[in-house]
UniProtKB/TrEMBL annotation:
Organism: Pseudoxanthomonas kaohsiungensis
Ranges of biased composition (kind: Basic and acidic residues): 56-74
Annotated spans, Disordered: 29-82
Protein name: Lipoprotein
Length: 82
């Protein structure tokens, strides 16, 4: 029986340590943090446009109302003789 003894006996703990060391050496390094991220393409413009359209319309209506109020005030001033 002593003829079957291997000169390097199998040790599970030693294999696990070697496997962890090998995996740790193979991990990817994180990207450098000093460089700003690459700009992304404008992908979601539909949602942005859906939000922006009512705001643009409201600005247009506001200008129309303000112009009408200015004209009305000018007419009142002219009627008062001022």
């Amino acid at each position: 029986m002593s003829d079957n003894v291997h000169p390097f006996p199998f040790r599970p703990a030693l294999c696990a340590i070697a496997l962890v060391a090998a995996l740790a050496a193979c991990r990817r390094e994180p990207p450098p943090t000093e460089r700003p991220p690459e700009p992304q393409a404008q992908a979601h413009t539909g949602l942005r446009d859906a939000i922006q359209a009512p705001q643009d319309k409201a600005h247009g209506v506001e200008k129309t109302v303000q112009d009408a109020a200015d004209r009305q005030q000018a007419e009142i001033d002219a009627a008062e003789g001022g």
